[in-house]
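WARN retry 2 of 3 for item q-0093 after timeout on previous attempt; input resubmitted unchanged.
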Amino acid sequence: MDFDLFVNILYATIRTGTPLLLVALGEMVCEKSGVLNLGQEGMMLMGAVTGFIVVNHFDIVALGFVSAAIVGMLMAILFAVIVLFLNANQVATGLALTIFGSGLSAFIGADYEGKIITSLDSLALPILSDIPVIGHILFNQDLVVYFSFAMFVGIYLFFKKSRGGLILRSIGENPDAANVIGLSVLKVRFLAICFGGAMAGIAGAYLSIAYTPLWTENMTSGRGWIALALVVFASWRAERIILGAYLFGFASIIHLVAQGLGFAISSNLLAILPYAATIVILIMLSANKNKLKLYEPVSLGKPWFKKH
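OK item q-0093 returned
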């Protein structure tokens, strides 16, 4: 493998890992508030089909991403109303949301399969993109990749340095105590769920607008489920989530490179490599169950009732 090929693999790794990074960061924020949303796959698919349709009709990429974020947020609002105000089971509601999103996206997108849209172009950052090796890998990407970098830094600092991050964590740990001191548990959880939905919608739109760009049924290929596992195995820490997302991206690219180079390995076996590699490595990272419990939000998945 020559050096240029290796650099291009790392470049593609960032692009491939970006949608997983976005949806996993959104889910981490949601889970830090104490809410488990298993509907990521459905929200990603709805974001993907919405973004593609909007760009297909209006040829405005930015509008496609905004529309996808809004649709993802609307689905998240539906989830939030059911689990926060109607006190439904979070696991069952999340699964229903995924089934609903998968079916609805397939129905809406049936007439758009095989159509071509304008892709999202790369944007080289002045000076930074000229840095040898790392410049091309990190600073010759598209705007959504840069957005994912910014979201990673912002969320990391939000939980480490800000009062808002402390409030969100406290509600995820002990909503009763948070309510006693005057924090609005339902409001904070509602906003966290909406944020996760918007991120899932953007992640889905990235697949159909920038990464492919085309629409096919179930094109997320389980990335929403991988994101859910990633958040847990990464111990609800942003720095581990970005590592896991790019690990998935690297494994995805390597399996395509192996096929291109003609390795005599079953294509089906190569196709499961990204998922298997991501899960195995993250299980190794989270092998210490005591540390995993230390970072897990105590109230995760548990309904909360405001006591009058």
